[in-house]
Amino acid sequence: MKKPVTTLCYIENDDSYLMLHRVKKKNDLNEHKWVGIGGHAEEGESPEDCLLREAREETSLTLTSYRFRGLVTFVSDKWGTEYMCLYTADGFQGILSDCDEGCLEWVPKKEIPRLNLWKGDLIFFRLLEENVPFFSLKLCYEGDRLILWQLNGMDMGADLPDEEKWKEILDSLRAI
Amino acid sequence: MKKPVTTLCYIENDDSYLMLHRVKKKNDLNEHKWVGIGGHAEEGESPEDCLLREAREETSLTLTSYRFRGLVTFVSDKWGTEYMCLYTADGFQGILSDCDEGCLEWVPKKEIPRLNLWKGDLIFFRLLEENVPFFSLKLCYEGDRLILWQLNGMDMGADLPDEEKWKEILDSLRAI
Fold first, then answer.
1. CB contact (8 A) between residue A133 and residue B133
2. A140 vs B contacts (CB less than 8 Å)
3. Which of A25, A120, A170, B53 has the most Cβ atoms closer than 10 angstroms to its Cβ?
4. A1 with A78: CB under 8 angstroms?
C-alpha cells in the first residue's frame, strides 16, 4: 500500500515554475491538471529522500538547493487523505528529460492562475510568493470543488480570499 | 491500518514540558520511554486536527496556542517509518487528567536529558530550545540504537553533535 505521505515540488527558474501537465496516467487523481513534480514516499524515506528521488525520476534533474515550505493536507471525498510536503527548489543540475506521468513545461509564474489547477493550489502559490514562514494548509474537496480550507489550524471557509482578506492573513502569518 | 502520520507535542509551562512516561500500553513502540503527547492522524485529519484531538484525549487539555516546529521522520528496523509532526504548545485551558497510555508529569527542561528518551529526541529538544526555523529531521534506529540522522536532507552521521558541531549546525539553520 502506498504511503499517504507525498512530496510536491515547484522547481524555479527565472520567473517560471516547472509544471507537470498530467495527461499520461490512467485513473490519476490529477488527470488533466497542472501540478508540480513529486510522488509518494517509500519505506524508510524522509520527505527529502523522496523529493530528490522523484525529481530524478520525473525530470532527470538533481536538485542542489531546495526549501521545505509547507505541509498540505489534501482531503478528497473520492481519493482519501494525503499529506503533501511542499517544496520549492531554486538549484538543480542536469538536463530536463521527458516524464512518464505527463508533459513538463516551464510556466511563467504570472500565467499559472490560467492553468487547470486544483483551486486550492492558488492559496499555496500565493503563500510561496509572499515567502511566509512554514505553513500547514488543509484543503478539503468534494470532487473538484473546494469545500473547506484551513491555515495553521484556522478555519477559512470555502472561498479564496479577496485582497483585503489576504492582507489580514499575511499580517497574521508574519507576526508568528 | 493506522496512518504513518502522527503528531508529537510538548506542552510548555514555565520552564517545564509535559512528558508522558509510557508504562501502561502493551506492545508499545515507546514502552518505558518518556515522550510528548500525541498519536496517529485519522482519516480526514490535518496535523492540527490530530494534535487538538490527541491533546484532549490524553490530557483533557484544550490547546489554545501552539506552533508546528518540525517534521521528524522516525525510521525503525522493527516498527517501520513514521512521520511525526512536532509541535510545542504554550497555551492551554482545562485541568490535566490521567492518561491511558502512561503517566503524565511536568518535567523541568534541564532535567529532560536524564530521562529514558529515544537518543535522537535530544537533537530536536536542542533545536526547539534554540528556536530555529522549521526543520525536517530524519532519525534511523536499529532497535534502540540511533544509527543515522539527517537534518534538512543533510547527512549527520550517527553521533550526537558536540558543542562545536552544534554551533556550526545552528549557524547554518539561521542563515536560511
1. yes
2. 44
3. A120
4. no
